[in-house]
Amino acid sequence: MVWSMRAFKPFGQCISNMAANVSRKSCVFSSIFGRLLCEIQPAFNCVSLRQRYPIQCRNLHSSEMMCGGKLKSEWRRKRAPALTRLCLDKPEKYKTRKAFGGGEKTKVTRAKEGSYIWKSQEIEFQTPILDVLYNMAHKDFTSRKIMVRGTVVEVDGEPFKTWYEKQDVHHESNDIKEGEKEPSVDNRILQQLQGGKVLAKVSSRPGQEGKVNGYLLEGQELSEYLELTRTNHNGKL
């Protein structure tokens, strides 16, 4: 068996040199070549390759061609998700990065307030976010307080309550003209306003826009999400 190892020694040295050259060119190893190199590594002492060139494939923004090819652009790299968290005791945190066409994108990693719309009344207020009730993206996002588009959150209802009380007094003092209809308000929203907390849904993309904006839940959508939050493991509703 000694002669066989001597016969394969030049081949092992050739493999090591080729891998070193590929590493210098910042080309990612293909899956087949990586498996082959890992299998022959104990036999041909290729440990020195990793010591000389400690390069990982995920750190390189290049194509998967082993012996060349056009390098990928920096903005085409796979980036980690924003995973925007609700942090009431910490300041908000934003990150900017280069986007396609020379623009910039902003993602928020920590948030505690947003702008929410009351569609039936056509008003919008900047209000703090109190809690995360339901997240359909992942089952663990609710317990980790992570907000994405479509997340049901609980926001402070004081701005909406103050505005509605002023509007209610205004309607009582002024008679409604003929042909005009008084704007209808869901009784469940009024009950939530009395408690100071309102259910809302995030409609923006925190990882792309850098904002956690949304709208208040009303009508059939409110009924559906109330049922979902009741069956959720936190049991807050």
TrEMBL record:
<dbReference type="Pfam" id="PF01201">
    <property type="entry name" value="Ribosomal_S8e"/>
</dbReference>
<protein>
    <submittedName>
        <fullName>40S ribosomal S8</fullName>
    </submittedName>
</protein>
<dbReference type="GO" id="GO:0005840">
    <property type="term" value="C:ribosome"/>
</dbReference>
<dbReference type="GO" id="GO:1990904">
    <property type="term" value="C:ribonucleoprotein complex"/>
</dbReference>
<keyword id="KW-0689">Ribosomal protein</keyword>
<comment type="similarity">
    <text>Belongs to the eukaryotic ribosomal protein eS8 family.</text>
</comment>
<dbReference type="InterPro" id="IPR022309">
    <property type="entry name" value="Ribosomal_Se8/biogenesis_NSA2"/>
</dbReference>
<keyword id="KW-0687">Ribonucleoprotein</keyword>
<dbReference type="InterPro" id="IPR001047">
    <property type="entry name" value="Ribosomal_eS8"/>
</dbReference>
<dbReference type="GO" id="GO:0006412">
    <property type="term" value="P:translation"/>
</dbReference>
<dbReference type="GO" id="GO:0003735">
    <property type="term" value="F:structural constituent of ribosome"/>
</dbReference>
